[in-house]
Design goal:
The structure holds two protein chains of two kinds. Chain A has two domains: about 5-115, Fe-S cluster assembly (FSCA) (GMP Synthetase, Chain A, domain 3, 2-Layer Sandwich); about 120-210, no CATH class. Chain A contains nine helices and five strands; from the N terminus they run H-E-E-E-E-H-E-H-H-H-H-H-H-H. Chain A has helices at about 5-15, 60-75, 90-100, 105-110, 115-140, 150-155, 160-175, 195-225, 235-240, and strands at about 20, 25, 35-40, 45-50, 80-85. In chain A, the strands form two sheets. Chain A has a three-stranded mixed β-sheet. Chain A is globular, with a radius of gyration of 20 Å. By secondary structure, chain B is of the alpha/beta class. Chain B has one domain: Metal-dependent hydrolases (TIM Barrel), CATH 3.20.20.140. Chain B is about 45% helix and about 10% strand. In chain B, helix 7 links the parallel strand 7 and strand 8. Chain B is globular and about 55 Å long. The chains are: A mainly alpha, B alpha/beta.
Chain lengths: ~240, ~350
């Protein structure tokens, strides 16, 4: 592989790092959903991806594939992007829809009653909540009072590496729910000031419990299904960080 | 029977078990193959390493193996045997009541045989349900709302035909409705694990109990909200419980939420055999203690009494089982075999 090609492949991977599984809120690259990646001499990128089971939800598969097309297609040198899904109950319809640039509804006809925007939004809000919960708990442990903290104060707060990571992850999703120009660092899913913190955190915790259930099973099932590749291993299944008390 | 260190006997009713046939010669198409492969994924991922079976054993273990794993090597006193038809995937069905009836004959005092119905079978299905109730004296059914049937990819409990079936079940004295909320595939753009239909039917059928298998995971928040409002909604711990081994912190979160919202009277143990075997599940559950900080933060506890209810007494109540009398019957049946 030439250095130029290697660099382009790295660019594509970085673009794919920005695509998350909507349910798990983790990059498709970390989840090892990307099975193959090629760039042909005409600058056409082909991506083949896989999911943990044959039964994984078609809507999520379609969302991820659309996001892959969009992120990779935004690279200036890319002329076209082909995304295909392997070994899935709806592989044929999804691949046909993707190849022809169809919307989800056009790809599935009467089996789909609406487009995916609402679903995308629902899961972006869940991602916002989980990231917020992680940061709120971190700040509470350090003795801060996050409910009244302004965005400027949050940005100026000196944090350790873990805190810095949690803050960056939260800020990356903050605009999903915060109104433009909002001064408070933290708002709820409706964009309003946070209610009493203890019960609010309990509510957020249940969002995380659901996502963890899926995350743990997805990793495990992916390992069980594609374990012969040597990756991912059960270690990936076990690597989920323990939840903070 | 499980015996505690102090010698106390715990009566175990395994609320969710199967006797399936996914042998190669029974598989109809790729969906059938992928279905059992997915189950095997669950099995191999969440079981302790020394409990993982070879795939061909998993495909079809048969009634003798099942008897051994539940009642001889395992601690179960009784088991609720559920049906999952999947006739679009398996030639003779995956797990039919006829198949399960073999187990009932093998261990009549230990097996609670449940039936099934599918509202898409229309009038003929109503008659079949009546015949099933008469022949097998069933008190419960298992519904699999995500089952494929021809062009259909599933149904909702709120469909008009589902109401007719639930009315029929009520008339026939089938009062326990176990619902597996699998990914309902249609419409494809909806959240795949929506549990909202349980809310409607639980309100409209006060004479029925709805046992939501897998506690609505991964929509635990929605499920808890429904269950707290409806007195006749229960949570089946199948699939949630195996996390006790692979991801204990996670299990702590789930069980403490369930205890907080539903309480110890509304939860049922289930191994989901043959996906998991009951012995290690019960041993780990009995040895498990809620961490003190969780007890304090959530104001819940998992006492020995709570464990007894979850492992058997709650199911005994739903299925009208007098535990002391049943112990005698089981002991009597064992003597008969020995003689």
């Amino acid at each position: 592989m030439t250095a130029a090609l290697a660099e382009r492949e790295a660019e594509v991977r970085r673009a794919l790092d920005r695509v998350t599984d909507p349910e798990l809120d983790e990059p498709v690259t970390d989840l090892r959903f990307i099975e193959a990646l090629t760039i042909d001499p005409d600058d056409v990128v082909s991506i083949r991806f896989r999911l943990p089971t044959y039964w994984c939800a078609a809507n999520f598969a379609f969302l991820m594939a659309s996001d892959m097309r969009q992120e990779v297609g935004a690279l200036p040198w890319v002329r076209a992007v082909n995304v295909t899904l392997g070994e899935h109950m709806y592989a044929e319809q999804i691949n046909h829809g993707l190849a022809n640039g169809l919307s989800f509804q056009a790809a599935f006809g009467s089996d789909a009653s609406a487009e995916l925007d609402e679903l995308r939004r629902t899961f972006l809000v869940k991602a916002f909540q989980r990231r917020q919960e992680a940061l709120l708990r971190h700040l509470l442990r350090l003795g801060h009072a996050p409910a009244d903290m302004t965005l400027d104060a949050l940005l100026a707060l000196p944090l350790d590496e873990e805190g810095d990571r949690l803050r960056a992850r939260y800020l990356d999703r903050r605009d999903i729910c915060a109104r433009p120009g909002e001064q408070l660092a933290f708002v709820d899913a409706h964009g309003d000031r946070l209610p009493e913190l203890a019960p609010y955190l309990r509510t957020l915790e249940r969002v995380a419990i659901n996502a963890e259930f899926n995350g743990a099973l997805c990793r495990g099932l992916l390992a069980a299904r594609f374990g012969a590749d040597g990756e991912p291993t059960l270690l990936d299944f076990a690597r989920m960080p323990p939840r903070a008390a | 029977m499980y015996r505690t260190k102090s010698g106390e006997e715990i009566f175990i009713i395994d609320g969710h078990t199967h006797n399936w046939n996914a042998a190669k010669d029974n598989i109809k198409n790729i969906h059938g193959q992928q279905f059992i492969d997915c189950f095997y994924g669950y099995h191999s991922v969440l079981s302790p390493k020394d409990q993982v079976w070879p795939k061909d054993k998993f495909d079809r273990y048969g009634p003798e193996q099942m008897y051994q794993d539940l009642f001889v090597d395992g601690p179960d006193d009784m088991a609720i045997l559920q049906c999952t038809y999947l006739t679009d995937f398996y030639k003779d069905g995956f797990n039919t009541i006829e198949q399960n009836a073999v187990m009932k004959e093998r261990a009549p005092e230990r097996i609670i045989l449940n039936g099934a119905f599918d509202p898409r079978d229309g009038e003929a299905g109503l008659d079949a349900l009546e015949a099933m109730a008469e022949k097998y004296k069933i008190k419960g059914v298992k519904l699999y709302t995500a089952e494929w049937r021809g062009d259909s990819r599933g149904y909702k409990l709120t469909d008009p035909w589902a109401y007719r079936y639930l009315e029929k079940a009520q008339q026939l004295g089938i009062k326990n409705i176990h619902v597996h909320k699998g990914p309902t595939i249609i419409p494809l753009d909806r959240d795949a694990f929506d549990v909202a239909d349980i809310d409607h039917v639980a309100t409209d059928f006060q004479g029925l109990n709805f046992i939501v298998e897998h506690c609505g995971l991964p929509r635990l928040d929605d499920f808890c909200w429904i269950a707290v409002q409806e007195t006749n909604v229960y949570g089946g711990l199948a699939v949630a419980l195996p996390f006790i081994h692979a991801r204990r912190d996670y299990f702590t979160n789930v069980i403490s939420e369930l205890l907080f919202w539903l309480g110890e009277d509304k939860l049922l143990f289930g191994s989901d055999y043959g996906i998991w075997t009951p012995r290690w599940l019960v041993e780990q559950f009995m040895a498990y203690e809620l961490p003190d900080e969780v007890k304090q933060a959530k104001g819940v506890d998992l006492t020995l009494q709570a464990k007894k209810k979850i492992l058997g007494l709650n199911a005994a109540r739903l299925y009208d089982i007098d535990v002391d009398a049943q112990k005698q019957k089981i002991a009597g049946a064992r003597e008969k075999v020995a003689a």
